[in-house]
Amino acid sequence: MPFINSLIASIIAFLSFLIPFSSSSSSSSSSSSSATTTTNSIPQKNYDVFLSFGGEDTRYNFTDHLYQALLKRGNRTFRDDKLKRGEEIGSELFKVIERSRFSVIVFSKNYADSRWCLNELVKIMECRKEMGQIVLSIFYHVGPSHVRKQTGSFGEAFKNYKEDTKEKKEMVQRWRGALTEAANLSGEHVKDDG
Q: 94 with 126: CB under 8 angstroms?
């Protein structure tokens, strides 16, 4: 647990350092362009941090500790506590992702078992490319190479995704691409023994 507390403290420090800079730059850019609002404008940021995680693996331990620490520091943090297994990701959740300054992805052994998590991840990586959202990857008891190459528990999860239609095949490819991209980002690795 001391390592986990230390890791959470370093994540908090990292985000706390960046949040003031993002807040001031986004508010000044939105005020200077308020006269010419377009549908392609950058959405208002309602949250500092969006947490993406596989609920069963981390909800009541690591992610909960991180969430509570972020709130304690005054960071407006979103985590989806209403998600039920097998449900479709809603457009409202996509808006929350778009309206977050940062996304923290907690990859865990069962993360890829959730289509919801994978769809969130695709959206997060789109926001990174299109809106400059900062993304931090945390590898919780799973190796970054397993995420990157979809091996181990990630490979097992992908065996269950049928690719029998063009749409399904394209979706699986988007998931794989987003996993590879996110795993290539700088992040933190929490090992089984740490």
A: no
Q: Rounded distance, CA 182 to CA 128, Å? A: 10
For tokens 């690719």, name the residue: 163
Residue 28: its pLDDT value, please?
A: 36
Pick from 31, 29, 27, 9: nearest CA to 19: 27
| Band of residue 82 on the pLDDT scale cut at 50, 70, 90 | low
Global pTM value? 0.81
Domains of the chain by start residue, with CATH? 2-18+45-190 (3.40.50.10140)
**Residues designated catalytic:** 120
Q: Are the C-beta atoms of 99 and 44 separated by less than 8 Å?
A: yes
What percent of the chain is predicted at pLDDT more than 90?
Answer: 58
